[in-house]
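Lab notes, practical 5.
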Amino acid sequence: MTPAERRKKRDEIKSSIGPFRNLTDYETCTDIQREVWRCNDLEIVPVALLRAAENHGGICLGAFNSLGEMIGFVFSLLGSEHGELIQHSHLLGVRSAYRNFEVGSRLKLAQRKEALRRKIHRINWTFDPMQPLNAYFNLGKLGTVSNVYIENFYGESSSALDRGLPTDRFVAVWNIDDPAVEERLDQGPPRHDMRKELKKFAVINHLEDIAPGMAISSAVKLNCGDEEFLFEIPYNLPEIKNRNLGVALEWQGKVRQVFRNYFRKGYAAADFWVAEDEGHLRAFYLLRKSKTA
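Output from the prediction step:
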């Protein structure tokens, strides 16, 4: 499918965003959780908790197709950080048939709009740094930043996305009325010519192929002093996890090592790049020295 055909297909998906309408929507939300995370019911946020959290300052928004069926949702809790009210976005899920049609993006934008209406200026959430598509969505498209890395945040999980690995997480911070965030949302992620970027920025590691579609990391440089630099991970890291858990665990060790080291030194994960290089996709975290460090 050509880019123009993909854009046309996206335009054909008509959806609306709005509050949960009735008890059925809360029940459908739990069904979508099961589909997306493929976990046991102990890890599902139940109807009673969704309703209680929303009734006390949380946000529940659904995405609905042209027939009025819920196809996705976003759920956040009212919280406090450094004495300031925030929303902690706990879940964002979209049915598999509706992914790649900007439904998730529209849900986040609606969540942002509702938070701003409530005079809240920050939303945070956790995400797995071993999931390149999530990193691109959060850092690249939405303009979040992270300088907090928590090992095994949720403990052992039954989710198919986490099974076999500790649940390490970034804490993403979305300063929703920051001019840089507004610019990123308005203009979208910039395109990157990797030949130029790799001449401009230091890369603290390189990938080493050990089998077709299977790469490990070289030793990483832990004393880079540049204001900005790159850390490469395989674009197909989730596939590598499914094929070889041992290699995935080795990658998680590298990710822990890099971010715990550089976050302590005042850096943040400030962007995530995906670019084509010689016919294949490459993925990079951009780390940037914090101005307040």
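Observations recorded by the TA: The radius of gyration is 19 Å. DSSP finds nine helices and 13 strands in the chain.
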